[in-house]
Amino acid sequence: MIGTIVCGVTDTQDGRAAAQLAGALAERLDMRLVYAHAVDGVSRGTEESLTARQRFGGAEAALTRIAQQNGPSRGVELRVDFGERAQLLAQIAAEEGADLVVLGSRAGGFRGRALRCTLARELEAATPAPVVVAPPQTRAHGEERLERAA
């Protein structure tokens, strides 16, 4: 294996598409793949609350399902933790020695684009690994090219 891809995954259409793209890249480039999810909105010291445990368990189940559907054939490592998205993804990228970080895009419109750009910018500043945001309109074409090249 040459390196590691860390993919920030959410249980949304865009999150699943990013997972699919990261899986295809990991398979094609023979790289290790880590799907990561940040359970945010939980205050420190309350991680053991029923709500936090439910959100954590739901995130683990969703990540497992997404990995089974989209990951490369040799498997994927899963990381779920509490924290703010950009900080946690940067921490996971550092711990895993990521060579590439893949993110899904958010819904269109000004607010969605602004949120997407903010997360990518924060990650670019916090990690030396390149950050790739897979825009929805180019995913299908990129995946087709990867499949044809194989």
How would you sum up this structure, described in words?
It is a single chain. The chain is α/β, with parallel strands linked by helices and 150 residues long. Helix 4 (109-126) links the parallel strand 4 and strand 5 (131-134). It contains five helices and five strands. The longest helix is centred in the middle third of the chain and has 21 residues, at 50-70. The chain has one domain (10-144): Rossmann fold, CATH 3.40.50.620. The protein has a five-stranded parallel sheet with strand order 3-2-1-4-5, sandwiched between helices. It has helices at 13-29, 50-70, 85-96, 109-126, 136-149; strands spanning 4-8, 32-39, 77-82, 100-104, 131-134.
- Helix content, binned percent: 40-55%
What quaternary form is this? single chain
Please provide the ordered H/E string of secondary-structure elements: EHEHEHEHEH
Low-pLDDT ranges: none
Strand order of the largest sheet: 3-2-1-4-5
Tell me what the CATH architecture is. Answer: 3-Layer(aba) Sandwich
CATH superfamily: HUPs
Give the CA-based shape.
globular
What percent strand? 15-25%
- Can you identify the CATH class? Alpha Beta
Number-wise, the strands total 5
CATH topology: Rossmann fold
> Which structural class do the helices and strands define?
alpha/beta
Mean pLDDT: 80
